[in-house]
Amino acid sequence: MINETPPDPPQASTDSGTGSAYRPDTPDIIAGVLAAAPSRRVRAVGDLYRLLLDERRTSPATTSAALAVARLLEDPRTLAEDRWRRGSGRRSLRAELLDWLASFADIARLEADAGAGAGTGAEAARDPLTAAHTARRVLHDRVAAFCEDPDPQVREAALATVALLLADPALASYAPRYAPAVRTVLAVSADSYYRWIARERLTAWGEDDGAPGGEDRKQPTGHPGGTAAPEHRARPAPARPAPGAPVPEPPVAAPGSEPGYRGPWRIAREEERAEWTFTPYGGVGPLHFGMTLTEVAGALGERPAGSLAAHHGEVRRLDHADFPGHGIRALFRNDRLGCVAVDALTGPQVRLYAAPLTGCTPSHVENWLVHRTTPRPGSLMRTPTADPVFAELGLALRPQRAGDLVLTRPLFLLPDWLDLWHRLPGAERSLF
């Protein structure tokens, strides 16, 4: 039985005044999932997703959480409904937990495809990926019971989880049993992520995926998973359709944010910002995708104030570099520029059709863009926190706080960066 009143967490610590808050351990998260207070349950679900985001791989913590979550599924308290994630509708906790297990299964699948976790004997027993593979068989047994649940949201989430778990070779023999339901339920779901899972798994099983004209071949960004990378080349901006929404308002300076003000929430006035345009999948302002750090610094005329390199296997690669004088973060893969994040408060004003994208009200920019991009499957995707990603433009809109204001922080991306869940380096991913 789970103790719903765990010990009080340690006092929140701060780091140089930044207010870095206490992050609960896995047992505290699991205890919170079935807490009596709805707000605590919602917070615990968010902590589960942050656990996956922080690790971005299978680990003892994520594997332990997955096994614990699977044990909770039969508890009647998981029938409680709420809005578990920003921008999502109401659904049962059971359906949400199954979606989280699908996220875990997808990460384990991707790691297996990459060839990780090949140890044997005692070494394999200590290997986190090997432990995750073993856990997948336990998870299958617990999740399979919900594949015929009368709640359609639970049924779809369970089928999606099982389909991803069957990527384990030890479970592959079950594929023919589930293929009909994957085809008739998941492949026609209203959720594009479930449709993508159906097509990807049916193809892997050698089954007809029934997809008309290649629909949903690319994985949406609203859930974790790999994204196929289209050819890297500049693409023309989409044709401008008839107006359907008001043009977003440019940033409004907060009181006291006149030039020279150095308060915590300084917002640059419109006349202070540089004016940039962008070419989808080509570049933004003076920056072009594929540049090195030296070339980026030269184009901006500014030395990076901070940069971070991370180990990728045995090679140390540059992850990102900040240029605060311009309000720009440059993000790299294989030491080449692949994403540009523009600070909502002080960054350049990047325009599309003369309309501002930087530092505006998020809903206004999103609504305006929705009316000006081609309505085709996969053209609008969502991050786990419901931020929009416009695949046609190579543009994502993330929120950035300034006191009580929330403003747009646009990210300009290459195609293989559209899956923000997996592709963003830790410094930028932590803003989810």
Number of strands: 15
The CA-CA distance between the termini, in Å, is 32 Å
Rg estimate, integer Å: 23 Å
Average pLDDT over all residues: 75
Strand order across the biggest sheet?
Answer: 6-7-8-9-15-14-13-12
| Unreliable stretches | 1-23, 116-126, 212-244, 253-257, 259-263
What structural class do you assign from the helix and strand content?
alpha+beta
Helical amount among residues, as a percent range? 25-40%
SSE ordering: HHHEEHHHHHHEEEHEEEEEEHEEEEHH
Q: What portion of residues belong to β-strands?
A: 15-25%
List keywords for this structure.
elongated, disordered N terminus, 8-stranded antiparallel beta sheet, 16% strand, 13 helices, 432 residues, 15 strands
Give a nutshell description of this structure.
The protein is of the alpha+beta class and 432 residues long.
